[in-house]
Amino acid sequence: MLITPEYVFQDVTHITPAFLAGKGITALVLDIDNTLTDDGSQELSEDVAAWLDTMRRAGIGLTIVSNGTPRRVRPFAEKIGLDYVCWAAKPLTLGLSVARRRLGVPRSRMAMVGDQLYADRMAAALYGIPAFMVVPRGPDRGAQVKMKRKWERSHWQAYYDRGGKLL
Length: 167
Known about the structure:
The protein has helices at 17-23, 46-57, 70-80, 94-103, 117-127, 143-161; strands at 7-9, 27-30, 61-65, 83-85, 110-114, 131-134. With 167 residues, it is of the alpha/beta class. The chain has one domain: Rossmann fold. It has a six-stranded parallel sheet, with helices on both faces. The longest helix has 19 residues, at 143-161. It is globular. The two termini are 19 Å apart.
């Protein structure tokens, strides 16, 4: 269960305040690339911008935790008005710990939202929080991510084999 997903959503916009309330979640830690936007993009789609507004109105705390550099993360986070942790080194958990302290919530109220099993899902599992995985928004640009995607296939399949559904 360290890598196999718990929940898989078609898109980040399919995660609702009602779903989060049912799980007792009041804060989300968000990945950027292929979660909120396409890999390497600084643009946010209208549907994701509306989703962020919905989460804010529902009182959900939001912050970005990314393995990206400040040059990648800072302009995007500032553009959409979110706090951020860059160079998070996921699956290590230091970035999640920093985010949790900034959000002021206990682990039991926080979840990770991301697209990569070997970074986002594993970090969440090691930190002891749920991971809400999303289908990647676009193609992967980096060779390292492309390689990890091949390794992830059996873990995605294990999710579906045990009856997991696309939410």
